[in-house]
Amino acid sequence: MMRRLLPALLLLPALTGCGGDSAGANGKLSVVTAFYPLQFVSERVGGDAVSVSTLTKPGAEPHDVELTARQVGAVADAGVIVYLGGFQPAVDDAVKQNGGDRAFDATTAVETITEQEADDHAEEGDAHTGAAAGADPHVWLDPTRLASIADKLAERLGKADPAHAADFTARAATLRAELTTLDGEFKTGLAECARRELVTSHTAFGYLADRYELTQIGITGIDPETEPSPQRLAGVAAEAREHGTTTIFFETLVSPKVAETIAKEVGAQTAVLDPIEGLTDESADYFSVMRANLTALKLGLECS
What we know:
By secondary structure, the protein is α/β, with parallel strands linked by helices. It has helices at 7-10, 12-16, 36-46, 69-77, 89-98, 115-123, 143-160, 165-189, 206-211, 230-242, 257-266, 286-300; strands at 29-33, 50-54, 80-83, 103-105, 197-200, 215-218, 247-250, 269-272. α3 crosses α8 (165-189), α7 (143-160) packs antiparallel against α8 (165-189) and α10 (230-242) crosses α11 (257-266). The termini are far apart. The model is unreliable at 1-20 and 118-134 (pLDDT under 50).
């Protein structure tokens, strides 16, 4: 269950003085990000002109993040706050109380899978949509959408620091080119597969599935802590058997027990598919994890 910050804690920065000083202690533009993918984009686009911090510790599950008084103060003092509206309630609250016009909501930069799309799939009797439990926030799993976020973030950083606006734009263009290459690798790698049904423990891969013409069958919903009902488990097992599923995918930051239960039921194996909500390996980055995901998908779906 997600817990929100106490109103008194959120008001702390207002009581101690108004924030919004755009420069950090080193004179660089201070950018506070909500969690890893937004940290990654901010660092790549901002380069050496920005000082980037994140509100979600490495290896922590970001959905349920709770902010300390110090973190709320960092939001109040940031030059730019980069977050994903609706994904982390505690961050949403801190931004609402202290963000003002310094907040950049990444959801405004891309077309998102919406509640209406989830309803449309439900009316069709389709439990496979990435938005099965509501709007899917995992936009960064589609490299083309992440590129759009980078472009819009460059514009926002340029407004906060006009002297480096051209640099931000150039770095976003470089990142877009790299993401386009990654997108091509996924398209090629997943073009010919024995199966296109993607059975996942956490319904986090709707954007990836939509982009590469896969069908996601999620055991749980958008919130990975949701316990699936016995009926849902039986339904997923039946679909897995119907499609000849040989791999059930689970993610890195939550327990694999549910995926293992389904795998045992249908005689399948399990494998990691990382939604890249947070890194557990300091040597990894967005690109290396996405390419590891591609390798796992090609093996699990038997792609040629």
